[in-house]
C-alpha cells in the first residue's frame, strides 16, 4: 500500500471527524464566549476574546454537584464489581445450576426501560426514606451496570484455561481461594472494563437522578446542568462550561483507556 | 444496555489481552472432590446477584405493576391504601387520544433513528476498514458522542438548534434561507430530536459493524479483487451478505435502546411543543415526574406497555443470537 494512495482517505476521514465532532467543538466554543457575544448574529465561530466567566461560575456553583457525581460513580463501581465478579465466576466456572436461565434473565433485565425502574424505585424509596440520598442513587444506578458486568465477566472467565484452575486445585485451593488468587487477578482487564462503564453510566445518568434525587441538597452534575438550563437560559456560556467539565471523565477514559472502551462496546453494549 | 456476547468476540476481540488464552474446548469431565460442595460454592458465589436481582429488579417491577393496577393519588402513595382498579388504567391509556400520537412518534423516532444510524455507521465502518494514516485515532474520536453524558449532548444540540441564536439557523440564513423554529414548531421538533439521537447512536453502530467487518477474512476480498470486482460490487456481494448476522443484531439492539429513550427528548423539548415529540417513554416519564402533579398509575401503565413492546423485540433478538451461535 503506497502512502500516496491513502492520503485522500486520511483527508476524507478528517473531514468526517470534523463534521461529527462539530457539536463538541461548539460546546467548547460557547463555553468560552463572553455573555454579551452569545446573542450576536452571526454567532462567533471562534472565541476570539475568550473568557473564563463560564468556568468561574462552574467552580462557584457546581463543585458540590461534581463531588456528588464522583461519589455516586465510585459507589456504583464498587457495588457492581462486588456483585458481578463472583456471579461471573459461578456462571462461567462453577457450573451453576440454572445458569442458562440466569443468563437469559440478565439479558431481559437490560431491556427494561429506565423510566419504569425509576417509578418502581420511587415508590419503594418514598416508604424507606431513601429519596435524595446517595446510597439510594448508587443502588438505582448500579442496575444499569450489573447485568452488563455479569455478562462481561462470564464471557471472559469462560475463556480462562482450565489447567490454571486445576493447578490451583492440586495445590489444595478451595473455590474461594481459587477465585481470589487465580480468577480475579487473571480477569483484571474485565474488572477495568466493567468499572469504567459502571462509572461512566452512573456519572452520566439523568433519569434516576432527575426522579430519585431531584430535591436534595446533593444533586449530581447532570441534574446541576439541567437545573441551570431551567433557571437562566441566558447564561449559555456557563451551561456549556458545566457541560465541558461534566465531559472530563469521558475524555479521560478515551485517552487513557480507549481499548477497554472499545472492548466494552463490542462485548456488550449500551446507551 | 443490552449485551451481545458472541463467544468469539468476547474472547478474541475484547482488546483486554485475552486473545492469547486459547480456551480449552469443552472441559473434559474431571473428578471433583465432592460435587455437592462445588454446587454449593456456585450458589454461594451467585447469591449476591440473586438477592440483588430479586430486591432491585423484581421488586421495583412488581411495585410498578402494583402502581398500574391501583388508583394512586399522591396521598395514597405515601399511605399505601390506593383502590384496586384492575386493568382500568391500561384501558384508559390505550383508549386515550394521546396513545396513537405517542405510538406514532415512537415509531417515527425509532425507525428513522436506527435506519440512518445504521446506514451511516455501516458506511463509516467500511470506510475505516482499510487502514490509512490516522485511521485508528479518527475511529477513536468517533466514540466521543457516545461517551458524553446525554445531558451534555442534548443541551449542546438545544443551543445549536435555538431559533434566534443557534448556529444551525445562522448557517441557513447565510445561504439565504429563513429561520426554522427547530424545537418550538410542531412540524420540525420530532425531526430535530431524531437528528440529535442519530448523532448519538452512530458511534455504537460504527464500532459493532467495524468489529463485524474484522471477522470477514481478507482472502475473500482478495479473491473478489482478482475477479475484477469494483468497490460497489464487492460491498453488495461480499460485505453486505457476510455482515448480515451482525447487522441484524445491531439493528435490533438499536431498536430496543431507542424505544427506551427519554432523556434526549425530555431535555430538548420535554415532549413538546404540544405532544409533537411525546413518545411512549416520554409520556410515561411526564405523567410520573414531569409535571407538578405526579400521576403514577397511568405512568406505570404506559411503562408496562412499553416493556411489552421492548420484550417482543428482545425475544426476537435472543432468538436470532441463539440461531447464530448454533450455526
Largest interface: which pair? A-B, 124 and 117 residues
> What is the strand content of chain A?
under 5%
> Helical stretch count of chain B?
16
Following the backbone from N to C, one meets helices and strands of chain B in this order, namely: HHEHEHHHHHHHHHHHHH
The coarse overall form of chain B would be globular
User: Can you write the helix and strand succession of chain A as a string?
Assistant: HHHHHHHHHHHHHH
Given this structure, which CATH class of chain B is correct? Mainly Alpha
Rounded to an integer, what's the Rg of chain A over CA atoms?
23 Å
- Give a short account of the largest sheet of chain B: 2 strands, antiparallel
The computed structural class of chain B is mainly alpha
Quaternary structure of the protein: heterodimer
The CATH topology assignment of chain A is: MetI-like fold
The number of helical segments of chain A is 14
- Overall pLDDT of chain A, averaged? 86
The global form of chain A is globular
Helix residue percentage of chain A: over 70%
Unreliably modeled segments of chain A = none
Instruction: Describe the main β-sheet of chain A briefly.
Output: none
Describe the overall structure.
With 271 residues, chain A is mainly alpha-helical. Chain A has a single domain (64-234, 245-267), classed as MetI-like (MetI-like fold, Orthogonal Bundle). Chain A contains 14 helices and no strands. In chain A, α4 (99-109) packs across α6 and α9 (188-204) packs across α14. Chain A is globular. The two termini of chain A are 37 Å apart. The mean pLDDT of chain A is 86. By secondary structure, chain B is mainly alpha-helical. Chain B has one domain: MetI-like (MetI-like fold, Orthogonal Bundle). Chain B is 70% helix and 1% strand. Chain B has a two-stranded antiparallel ribbon. The longest helix of chain B is centred in the N-terminal third of the chain and has 34 residues, at 35-68. Chain B is globular and about 75 Å long. Residues 1-32 of chain B have low confidence and may be disordered.
Amino acid at each position: 500500500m503506497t502512502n500516496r494512495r491513502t492520503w485522500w482517505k486520511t483527508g476524507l476521514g478528517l473531514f468526517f471527524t470534523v463534521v461529527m465532532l462539530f457539536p463538541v467543538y461548539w460546546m467548547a466554543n460557547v463555553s468560552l464566549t463572553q455573555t454579551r457575544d452569545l446573542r450576536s448574529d452571526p454567532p462567533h465561530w471562534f472565541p476570539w476574546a475568550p473568557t473564563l466567566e463560564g468556568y468561574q461560575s462552574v467552580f462557584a456553583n457546581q463543585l458540590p454537584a461534581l463531588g456528588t457525581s464522583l461519589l455516586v460513580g465510585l459507589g456504583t463501581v464498587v457495588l457492581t464489581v462486588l456483585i458481578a465478579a463472583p456471579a461471573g465466576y459461578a456462571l462461567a466456572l462453577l457450573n451453576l445450576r440454572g445458569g442458562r436461565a440466569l443468563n437469559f434473565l440478565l439479558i431481559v433485565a437490560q431491556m427494561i426501560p429506565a423510566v419504569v425502574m425509576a417509578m418502581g424505585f420511587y415508590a419503594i424509596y418514598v416508604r424507606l426514606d431513601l429519596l435524595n440520598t446517595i446510597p439510594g442513587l448508587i443502588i438505582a444506578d448500579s442496575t444499569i451496570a450489573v447485568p452488563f458486568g455479569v455478562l462481561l465477566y462470564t464471557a471472559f472467565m469462560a475463556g480462562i484455561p482450565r489447567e490454571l484452575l486445576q493447578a490451583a486445585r492440586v495445590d489444595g485451593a478451595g473455590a474461594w481461594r481459587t477465585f481470589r488468587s487465580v480468577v480475579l487477578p487473571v480477569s483484571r482487564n474485565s474488572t477495568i472494563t466493567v468499572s469504567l462503564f459502571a462509572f461512566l453510566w452512573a456519572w452520566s445518568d439523568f433519569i434516576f437522578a432527575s426522579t430519585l434525587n431531584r430535591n436534595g441538597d446533593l444533586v449530581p452534575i447532570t441534574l446541576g446542568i439541567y437545573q441551570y438550563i431551567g433557571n437562566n437560559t441566558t447564561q449559555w456560556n456557563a451551561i456549556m462550561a458545566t457541560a465541558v467539565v461534566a465531559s472530563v471523565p469521558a475524555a479521560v477514559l478515551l485517552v487513557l483507556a480507549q481499548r477497554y472502551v472499545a472492548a466494552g462496546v463490542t462485548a456488550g453494549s449500551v446507551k | 444496555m443490552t449485551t451481545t456476547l458472541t463467544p468469539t468476540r468476547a474472547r478474541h476481540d475484547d482488546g483486554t489481552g485475552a486473545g492469547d488464552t486459547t480456551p480449552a474446548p469443552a472441559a473434559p469431565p474431571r473428578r471433583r472432590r465432592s460435587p455437592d460442595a462445588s454446587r454449593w460454592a456456585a450458589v454461594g458465589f451467585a447469591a449476591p446477584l440473586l438477592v440483588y436481582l430479586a430486591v432491585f429488579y423484581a421488586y421495583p417491577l412488581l411495585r410498578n405493576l402494583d402502581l398500574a393496577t391501583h388508583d394512586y393519588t399522591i396521598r395514597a402513595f405515601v399511605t399505601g391504601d390506593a383502590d384496586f382498579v384492575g386493568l382500568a388504567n391500561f384501558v384508559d391509556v390505550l383508549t386515550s387520544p394521546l396513545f396513537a400520537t405517542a405510538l406514532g412518534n415512537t415509531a417515527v423516532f425509532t425507525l428513522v433513528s436506527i435506519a440512518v444510524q445504521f446506514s451511516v455507521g455501516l458506511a463509516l465502518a467500511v470506510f475505516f476498514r482499510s487502514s490509512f494514516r490516522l485511521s485508528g485515532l479518527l475511529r477513536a474520536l468517533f466514540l466521543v458522542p457516545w461517551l458524553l453524558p446525554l445531558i451534555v449532548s442534548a443541551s449542546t444540540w438545544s443551543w445549536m438548534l435555538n431559533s434566534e441564536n443557534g448556529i444551525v439557523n445562522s448557517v441557513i440564513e447565510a445561504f439565504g434561507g429563513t429561520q426554522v423554529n427547530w424545537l418550538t414548531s410542531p412540524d420540525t421538533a420530532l425531526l430535530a430530536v431524531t437528528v440529535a439521537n442519530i448523532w448519538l447512536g452512530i458511534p455504537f453502530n460504527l464500532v459493532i459493524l467495524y468489529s463485524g467487518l474484522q471477522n470477514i477474512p481478507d482472502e475473500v476480498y482478495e479473491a473478489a479483487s482478482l475477479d475484477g470486482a469494483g468497490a460497489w460490487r464487492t460491498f453488495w456481494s461480499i460485505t453486505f451478505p457476510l455482515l448480515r448476522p451482525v447487522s441484524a443484531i445491531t439493528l435490533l439492539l438499536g431498536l430496543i435502546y431507542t424505544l427506551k429513550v427519554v432523556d434526549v427528548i425530555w431535555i430538548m423539548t420535554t415532549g413538546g411543543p404540544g405532544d409533537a415529540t411525546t413518545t411512549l417513554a416520554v409520556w410515561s416519564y411526564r405523567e410520573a415526574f414531569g409535571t407538578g402533579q405526579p400521576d403514577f398509575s397511568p405512568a406505570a401503565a404506559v411503562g408496562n406497555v412499553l416493556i411489552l413492546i421492548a420484550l417482543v423485540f428482545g425475544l426476537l433478538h435472543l432468538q436470532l443470537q441463539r440461531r447464530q451461535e448454533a450455526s
